[in-house]
Amino acid sequence: MIPLHRCAEVAKAHRDGTPIVALESTIITHGMPYPQNLEVARQVEADVRAAGATPATIAVINGQLHIGLEDAELEKLAQAKGVAKLSRADMAACIATGGTGATTVAATMIAAHLADICVFATGGIGGVHKGAETSFDISADLLELAQTPVTVVAAGAKAILDVAKTLEVLETQGVPVITVGQDSFPAFWSSTSALRSPLRMDDPAQIAAAHVTRAQLGLPGGQLVANPIPSADEIPAADLAPIIATAQNDANTHGITGKAVTPYLLQRIFELTEGKSLSANIALVRNNARLASRIAAALALKVN
Ligand code: PSU
Ligand code: MN
């Protein structure tokens, strides 16, 4: 196996068998502007610690796979320009050539699993893009959930995606989609959508038990936990719909394709909402970090 570079805090938690929560880095480099990205990355790590778990932000730096970043490394990554966005397809090439890159949900799951981390918190996962029937743009995150045994906590799927098709692909791939505290599948910036969640669990211990049971059944893959944004922080879906349509149009006009699509849409929506999308995004990531910590704590009780 390739060497893992655990920071001191994560190395200790790994030795002691205490709960660890993985965090991705693409949200830092491609999902939010500087300096808010750095503030949020630090805040989310603090939220995980306050909830009694250890944060492990994952990234590739100079060809080394880092499981947990020192603060100086986090700061450098948050300020860096032109950092590679690494998914399953690019991670090995980046490591082999001594490169630096931020990990998406898919790549973070791969790294977390190598590092014995079962729970991972993020904002939103990639999914099936609108118009995928012609563009074929389906995020590698969905296929990763089908094969790598990590429980991923997200706030549902963004309305930049075709959420109904995203749920269909997850079902086809055998990925459990578990919404917490409500029957409706959450829509990232809004707590509810018109779609019903395939599964519902209200207790982190049940989610931990389902994770363990999947492994006992010999089923590969992880689970998607959909955690609704707190209602005080949500943006009504109707307010966002025209903004998303404009962002989508702009992406088409500028010929944005492939891995550039998601970062472009996120940046455009940030501009068009004058930063409101970002405040909601921050609130939901923090909320996800807290829930992931509780699931990790419940899992540590079962495993140790
Ligand atoms: N959705 C968000 N914020 C993000 C991303 C998705 O709300 O930062 C990032 C995540 O890293 C996710 C990646 O794994 O985008 C998906 O990219 P793509 O659609 O190219 O697979
Ligand atoms: Mn894509």
Structure write-up:
The chain is an alpha/beta fold and 304 residues long. The chain folds into 2 domains: 1-117, Indigoidine synthase domain (Indigoidine synthase fold), CATH 3.40.1790.10; 119-304, Indigoidine synthase domain (Indigoidine synthase fold). Helices cover 48% and strands 13% of the residues. Strands 1, 2, 3, 4, 5, 6, 7, 8, 9, 10 and 11 form an 11-stranded mixed sheet that branches. The longest helix is centred in the last third of the chain and has 28 residues, at 276-303. The chain is globular, with a radius of gyration of 18 Å. Bound molecules: pseudouridine-5'-monophosphate (PSU) and manganese (II) ion (MN). Residues 24, 26-27, 31, 87, 104-105, 123-124, 126, 139-141, 158, 259, 262, 266 line the site of pseudouridine-5'-monophosphate (PSU).
Explain the layout of strands and helices:
Layout (H helix, E strand, L loop, with lengths): L3 E3 L1 H9 L3 E4 L2 H4 L6 H15 L3 E8 L2 E4 L3 H9 L4 E3 L4 H6 L4 E3 L1 H10 L4 E3 L10 H4 L4 H8 L3 E4 L8 H10 L4 E3 L19 E2 L3 H13 L6 E4 L10 H17 L7 H12 L3 H28 L1
Parallel strand pairs: 1-4, 2-3, 2-7, 5-6, 7-8, 8-11, 9-10, 9-11
Antiparallel strand pairs: 3-4, 3-6
Helix pairs in contact: 3-4, 3-13, 6-8, 10-13, 11-12
The structure holds pseudouridine-5'-monophosphate (PSU) and manganese (II) ion (MN).
Can you give keywords for this protein?
2 domains; Indigoidine synthase fold; 11-stranded mixed β-sheet; binds manganese (II) ion; 48% helix; alpha/beta; binds pseudouridine-5'-monophosphate
Total tally of structural domains: 2
Roughly how many Å apart are the termini? 24 Å
Helical residue percent? 40-55%
CATH class category label of the largest domain: Alpha Beta
CATH level-3 fold name of the largest domain: Indigoidine synthase fold
Approximate strand percentage: 5-15%
Low-confidence segments, given as residue ranges, are none
Q: What is the number of helical segments per DSSP (H or I, 4+ residues)?
A: 13
The ordered string of helix (H) and strand (E) elements is EHEHHEEHEHEHEHHEHEEHEHHH
The major beta sheet can be summarized as: 11 strands, mixed
Q: Which CATH architecture of the largest domain?
A: 3-Layer(aba) Sandwich
Q: What's the alpha carbon Rg, rounded to whole Å?
A: 18 Å
